[in-house]
Structures are given as structure tokens and as C-alpha cells.
Design a protein that fits this description.
about 210 residues, 8 helices, 2 strands, about 80% helix, globular
Amino acid sequence: MTWEVDAGGAMLLVLLTAALVAASWAWAPRGRRVWAPAALGLLAAALAWSGAADLTLAGDTPRTLLVALAGALAVLGGGPVTTSLFALVDAEGHAQGDLEGDVEGDAERDAGTDPVSDSAQDADTLERAGQLLRGGAWIGVLERAGVAAALVAGWPEGLAVVLALKGLGRYPELRNAGTGAVAERFIIGTFTSVLWAAACAACVVLA
């Protein structure tokens, strides 16, 4: 068992460890607003460091530790980041909907009709769509694990296999959803999970 790690390699391990800790804390509802962006920033720093710095991570133990940290971060970190992005999209949608609702409400009142209720505006949100796409959190975990494992193993074709399986499994729900928010949640969640897992895997490949 050999352990040959220089300062650059140690910094990469520290960044990944810090990102993993932040991602773990981000699972708490109150901590998501702070720790999910922190985990994203730390992963971006680790990715930039692994690609720019001259690192030494020789031996089975350092490489195994690197793969374990990146894999755990890929699995754990993607969930809070994806949920935060859903909340951000919903918040922007609510703000735009409120503005349009005020204008339409004034016009409807002038015309003598009833304005659209808030419950109707809330029906087409990503949060509500998540109730239709059951098991999304666990599917996301498996998706990120599969993507990271395929890329670290040097089998990029595995990415297509993972996405194909997810698409086929979700097709009936997407077809019968009856709301555009379901497809929107599927696309946003898939892209976010894949990009997060790919960034984690890139830390290993580039190091």
C-alpha cells in the first residue's frame, strides 16, 4: 500500500471533502438555501483545481479515496442542488405569474369576470409536478451513481444507457401528465443530475 500525495493532491481531497460535508448539510430543509450553493461552489473549485493544478495522487489508497469522495459527492450532492434549482424556477414562475395575474385580474374585473385564483396558478409548479413523478429522489440517486461510475470507468456509453432507462421508465408518466410542469421537472432534474455527476467524475479523470 503506497501513499504519495503532494500539496496539490491534498488540496483536491480537502475540497471534495468540504463539498461532501456541505452537500450532507444541504439535505436539511433549512440548510438547503445556504449549503447547496456552498457545495456547488466547492465542487466548481475542485473541478477547476483538478484540471489546472499539477497533482500527484499516486498509489491505490489515494486514488481509492479520491474515487470514494467524488462518488459520494455525486450521489449525495445532486439532490439538494436539484431541489434548490426547482425552488428557484418555481419562485421565478410565481413572480411572473403574480405580475401577469395582476394585469389579467384588472382586465377581468373591468370586463365583469372573476380573476384566476391563486390555487389555479399554483397547479402548474415543479413542486406539484414532483407529486406525479414518484420516486424522483431515489431515481436521481441511482442516475447520478450510474453516470459517475460510467465516466470514471472510462465507459461514456453508459451515460446513454442510464438516460435511456430513465426515459423509458418515465415515458408513461410524461405522456399522461396533463401538465407541462411534469416534463419541465423531468428535463431540469435530468440535466442537473447528469451535469453534477459528470463534474464529480471529471475531478477523478482530470486528477
